[in-house]
């Protein structure tokens, strides 16, 4: 089977091809326009998707060395995400499928982040726990099979990626700041500064109080010394990253114990974070877990994860009709 997959939920226009379960193309057109605004501007994202979608499709077909007449099904991100951005991908997928008389496959973006683990070896065994940490979500998911997933804990307010990005903004770093915090953290002291750990029940998270604590911390320090940020950038980044990773890991360890599960995965943009990746590897050794860490290219948004999810829906015969619409919010 040849599945063509489209991702357009936020600010990446991406198209991938999955040929008999193998990813043979994964083209990602990043949108740089948002850097000037310190965050994604939805209306601009939609317009850039509109410009990028056709050339991205063409490049993916070239990379995979397939003709559009060889495609067997079209998979697309139905949600969650920015409605206008999703609409570009969904409309294109519907037109492409209509023109070539192909079946349509609707994919949940958050399930796809998790299913990215089924692109390459080693693949996790069911049931496994996945900490999905991205720009808009922070969830601990019990994955029972490809499409039977249960959220057992999640953030009550901000996502972990937002905590990274908003801290970066306070430090005058450009959007998206997560990767830059990671970079500066490499040369800093992770215990130079201490931040309060949110006291939240069960397996849930909260990052809004944490974010405010960092805002006040930086504001107060800058009052004493206007060069505080410049002089301590690496230590601030390392300490913030260390705190976020500790918060994430505490609940993940609790979930592993509660569900008596040693198959542990991470997914989403923040799973590219070196602090989180290293801490998970330490936990593999100290907790006896089998850990699954995605390749960097499959952490942040990409269509390969939509394609592999689409492939498994294709095998299950799970198709949708031309009346399908995008959903800004979407449950599993
Ligand atoms: P969602 O998947 O929740 O809809 P999204 O698709 O916008 O949100 P992703 O593309 O999965 O999110 O992830 C983007 C987030 O990952 C951003 O917040 C970014 O700062 C963060 N991120 C990427 N690389 C790193 C890194 N190395 N360290 C920390 N954060 C990172
Ligand atoms: Mg993005
Ligand atoms: Fe995402």
Class based on secondary structure composition and strand pairing: alpha/beta
The number of strands is: 10
**In which range does the helix fraction lie?**
40-55%
Assembly state (oligomeric): single chain
Q: Report strand order across the widest sheet.
A: 3-2-1-4-5
User: Low-confidence spans: pLDDT under 50, at least 5 residues?
Assistant: none
Distance N to C terminus:
25 Å
Identify the overall geometry. Answer: globular
The ordered string of helix (H) and strand (E) elements is: EEEHEHEHEEEHHHHEHEH
Could you tell me the strand content as a percent range?
15-25%
Pfam family, one: TsaD
GO cellular component, one term: cytoplasm
Subcellular location: Cytoplasm
Binding site for substrate: 132-136, 165, 178, 182, 273
Summarize this entry quickly:
The chain has 332 residues and is an alpha/beta fold. The chain is 43% helix and 19% strand. It has helices at residues 42-64, 83-100, 109-115, 160-170, 178-185, 208-224, 228-258, 274-287, 304-316; strands at 2-7, 12-19, 22-30, 73-79, 104-108, 128-133, 138-145, 148-154, 263-267, 290-292.
How would you describe this protein?
It is a single chain. This protein has helices at 42-64, 83-100, 109-115, 160-170, 178-185, 208-224, 228-258, 274-287, 304-316; strands at residues 2-7, 12-19, 22-30, 73-79, 104-108, 128-133, 138-145, 148-154, 263-267, 290-292. Strand 1 and strand 2 (12-19) form a beta hairpin. The two termini are 25 Å apart. The protein has a 5-stranded mixed β-sheet with strand order 3-2-1-4-5, with helices on both faces. Strands 8-7-6-9-10 form a 5-stranded mixed β-sheet, with helices on both faces. With 332 residues, the chain is α/β, with parallel strands linked by helices. It has 9 helices and 10 strands. Magnesium ion (MG) binds next to loops.
